[in-house]
Amino acid sequence: MRGVLDIASALAQARTVGSFIDRGMEELATAVGGTLVSFNRVNLANTTASVALRPYQPEHETTIHGVARLLDEHPLYQWYNAQPDWSPVRISDVTPWEDFQRSSLLSELLRPAGASHGIAIMLLPPAGPEWVFFMVNRSDPDFTDDELRLCVQLQPALVALYLRLALSADSVESPTLALTRRERAVLCYLADGLTAEAIARRLPARPATVRKHLQNLYAKLGASDRLEAVVRGLDLGLLTAEDLSREFEWSVRFDWPRPVP
After folding, report:
1. 128-194-133 Cα angle (round to 5)
2. What is the mean pLDDT of residues 180-189?
3. Residue 254 lies in a domain
4. Are residues 77 and 29 in the same domain?
5. Residue 101 falls within a domain, yes or no?
6. Do 102 and 203 lie in a common domain?
7. N or C: which end of the chain has fewer CB within 10 A?
8. What is the pTM assigned to this prediction?
9. What distance lies between CA 241 and its chain's CA centroid?
10. Do 110 and 145 have their domain in common?
11. Which of 32, 48, 138 is nearest to 88 (CA)?
């Protein structure tokens, strides 16, 4: 198991929020033994959310929407809502495992996705309207005390690095004038969770044209995928909470191999 200083040193190389998210998921998967790792931003005030998964499989979309629908029943959601301690915890730390095994949340959603056991690592205190956190999941066995202890020791570094990048992004000059009107429209559609094909129908335009707009947009924002583009858009003031879907529409990052330039 890699040490906290080694992991923090690797993550400190990230220069954008998006790269921090990517590297964070990679490091947690390796260090903690997670087979499904996610980065989550949930705004409870306006019921919007975005999630990046690694690895992403098409069937995970059902799980994501199902968890959003049953969020009130999730033991970790109940735990962080009930008390001020926002240290990392396992699902099994906050609910009797025998009871959780009988829940539809586990049997219908988490277990089929290989996410029976989980550890949440908060990056912002959950007392506010926005929850930002990594979630590390796997099937069996449950996470060990040593794996949980590593998450607890790593949390301060993750919080500090995330806040540093988020605050530095706020101070960057907005590239609004560098984006064309069509690229700004595409960015807003991305924030609403639309695919390239759906965006093409809205504009209207050919899907190939939309993909070209996406390529240009990613280059200008320094992003490599839709989640990072939306995160950068929010950080730079190109998007606001009002631009995001009013439902629990999750911006799912499709994590298949990217084409080589």
Report:
1. 30
2. 87
3. no
4. yes
5. yes
6. no
7. C
8. 0.71
9. 16
10. yes
11. 32
* Three-state DSSP state, 101: helix
In a shared domain, residues 31 and 150 = yes
Using only C-alpha atoms, the chain has a radius of gyration, in whole angstroms, of 18
The Cα–Cα gap between 207 and 122 comes to 38
Identify the sign of the CA torsion 112, 87, 55, 235.
Answer: positive
Alpha-carbon distance 87 to 120, whole Å?
8
Closest by Cα among 126, 128, 40 to 83: 126
Q: What total number of domains does the chain contain? A: 2
3-state secondary structure of 49: strand
pLDDT tens digits for 89-106?
Answer: 999 999 999 999 999 999
Q: Indicate if 108 and 153 belong to the same structural domain.
A: yes
Q: Determine the distance from the C-alpha atom of residue 153 to the mean position of all C-alpha atoms in its chain, rounded to a whole number.
A: 21
Peptide bond preceding 55: is omega within 30 degrees of 0, i.e. cis? yes
Range of the domain at 74: 4-171
Among the listed residues 81, 18, 71, the one whose alpha carbon sits nearest the alpha carbon of residue 49 = 71
CATH number reported for the structural domain that contains residue 127 in this entry: 3.30.450.80
Tell me how far apart the alpha carbons of residues 198 and 211 are, in angstroms, rounded to a whole number: 12
List of residues 6+ apart from 219 with CB closer than 8 A: none
* Same-domain pairing of 57 and 161: yes
Considering the domain architecture, whether residues 156 and 183 belong to the same structural domain is answered as no
Could you read off the pLDDT of 106-128 as tens digits, one per residue? 999 999 999 999 999 999 999 88
Q: In 98-241, which ranges are E strands?
A: 117-122, 130-138
At 8, which amino acid appears? A
Task: Let me know whether 166 and 181 are in one domain.
Answer: no
Residue 136: closest CA among 69, 36, 213, 237: 36
pLDDT at position 155: 96
